[in-house]
Amino acid sequence: MRYPQGGGLTAERQQFREELRLKAAERFAQGESNSLIVKDLRVSVRSVQRWRQMWDEGGPRALQSQGPASLPRLSEKQFAQLEAELAKGPAAHGWEDQRWTLARIKTVIGRRFHLTYTIQGVRKMLVRNGWSCQVPARRAMERDDEAVAGWVKEVWPCAEGSRRPVEPGSSSKTKPDSP
What is the rounded average pLDDT of the residues 152-173? Predict the structure, then answer.
């Protein structure tokens, strides 16, 4: 399965699952019981029940693969264009701050490609194409990195050194020095 790349099944896995359904269809035609098919094909009882119902209604054709549930609405070329637009930053598209949100990306898709997506559809499309949600590091504009580095180098070791030294001790509260 391609979950790390955003979900869905690979073509090979889709083919394998279709073959399982068609094997089940052959066995339905022979009159075999669901429990025997479950055991031999190593699938769930519910799957075989669902397949049998589909087979009863439409024959073996009903068990053939219907393809992916939905095709991506943006082509690879269009997604590359979207990435280029996102690389320009939100300010280039009229927003004051430098923060991309799903709603803003949805708006850019609508303006650029004249397509409407839901917020969740935008999220799924981005994840499918290797993007991840990240929260920007929040730092003050006035932050002085040199002063922070100096504090970490000089002050922090003094604060850290004030701990008790680690020594072997006793688990007895009443006899701390017992042998």
Answer: 70
